[in-house]
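User: Run a structure prediction on this.
Assistant: Running it now.
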Amino acid sequence: MGADEIRERWRHPNPGDSDDVKHWNSLASNFSKYAVPSARSDKFMALIDGTYKGRRQYALDVGCGAGQYSIALAARFRHVYGTDISEAMIDCARGLASKKKCDITYEIGDWASLPEGNPILSRKYDIVIGHMTPAINSAETLEKMISVCRGMCYLAKPTRRKDAIADGFAEAAGLEPRDNNDLIPNILSLLWYLGYNPCTQYWSNHWGMERNPTELKNYFLRIMNSGKPLGPYADRRADEYLESITVDGTIKEDADVLIANIYWRV
C-alpha cells in the first residue's frame, strides 16, 4: 500500500453537495454560542501552546466555523486567516472578530474546491489548523492543507463514538450507523507515506446537543445515507422512532466521542 492507494480509496464523499452549505448555515447560530478556547480549557489549544515553537506570522484556520479558534490563534500570531463553506458561519466569525477587536481575514468557500489564485491559497502559513471540521475529508483536502503550510499542521478529528440515539435511528431506518474507523488510519498512513512523522493525542469527550426531530433526521440522513431520502416504510419507522424520544418538541442527543489530535511538521 502507498499514497496513491490511499488517495484512491479516501475521496470526498459528496463533491459539490449544495446541501452542505444549507446544513452548516442552519447550525451557525448554535455554533456562535461556543466560547473562545484557551489552553487551560481546551486540549487542542493546550497542544498547540505546548508543541509549537516556530514563527508567529501567519496562521490559517481551515473550516473555521463561527471563528472561535481563529480568535484564539489571533492572540498568538500576527495575522490569522479563516475559511469556511458556510456564509452564515463566516458572518458569525466576522462578528466575533469585530467584538474581540481582532484583525482576521475570512473567506467563504469550500476547501476542497478553492481554486488556485484564491487569496487564502496565495501564501504559506506558519501554522494550519483544522479543528473538528469536515473540510478535511479526503486525501486531496489533507494534501491541500499541507501545501499551504511552512511550519506545523494540527488536526482534530472525531473517531469512535457511542451514540444511542444515532444507533436507534439507524436501526429504525434500516441504515448502517456512521463509522469513522477508517478516518484516522487514512490520515496517519497518508502522512507517513508522504514522508511526515505524525504525532497523535487521544482524549475522550462528551457531546450534548438539542435539536428538533426534523433537524436531527436530516443530519442522520446526511451522515448515514448521503442525504438521500428513505423509502416510505423506512421513513415512517424513522419518524416514529424520533417521535418516541421527543420531549417538548426537542431531542437531546448525548454521545461519548474519542477525539484524535494529530500534528506534524511540514
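The two ends are 22 Å apart (CA to CA).
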